[in-house]
Amino acid sequence: MPTGKLTKLVHLSQQRCVLNTRLVPDHNDKGYGLIEDADGREVYFSHEVVENQFGFDDLRKGQQLEYTLENAPYLRASSVRLTPAVAEQILRPAA
């Protein structure tokens, strides 16, 4: 499974309201992100594909993520999760 660094995370509820549009930000857990792969390319993912007990709201810019690419005309992830090392750091209580 390829890994990459989370470079951009957009929560739709934190966006400005734009008049005359159908997009109405309602929940903080909706949005999208971009992962930079080993070759420097950007891989898009939606909030819906984040797996495990850590949801979209738990992601932070700079974290290492594992992802699976979807068969699409552009680089899009079909599943995203924190790498095991990052997940362990989150679960470990502070000393």
Quick synopsis:
This protein has 1 helix and 5 strands; from the N terminus they run βββββα.
What keywords describe this structure?
five-stranded antiparallel β-sheet; 95 residues; 5 strands; single chain; mainly beta; OB fold (Dihydrolipoamide Acetyltransferase, E2P)
Q: Give me the strand/helix succession.
A: EEEEEH
Radius of gyration: 14 Å
What sort of overall outline do the alpha carbons produce when their principal axes are compared?
A: globular
Helix content: under 10%
User: So how many helices?
Assistant: 1
CATH homologous superfamily annotation: Nucleic acid-binding proteins
What is the CATH level 1 assignment? Mainly Beta
Q: How much of the polypeptide forms β-strand, as a percent range? A: 25-35%
Q: What is the annotated CATH architecture?
A: Beta Barrel
N- and C-termini, Cα separation: 32 Å
What would you call the structural class?
A: mainly beta
For the secondary structure, the number of strands is 5
What are the segments in which pLDDT stays under 50 over at least 5 consecutive residues? none
Which sheet architecture does the biggest sheet show?
Answer: 5 strands, antiparallel
> What is the residue-mean pLDDT, rounded to a whole number?
81
How would you sum up this structure, described in words?
The chain has 95 residues and is mainly beta. 8% of the residues lie in helices and 34% in strands. The chain contains 1 helix and 5 strands, in the order E-E-E-E-E-H. The chain is globular and about 45 Å long.
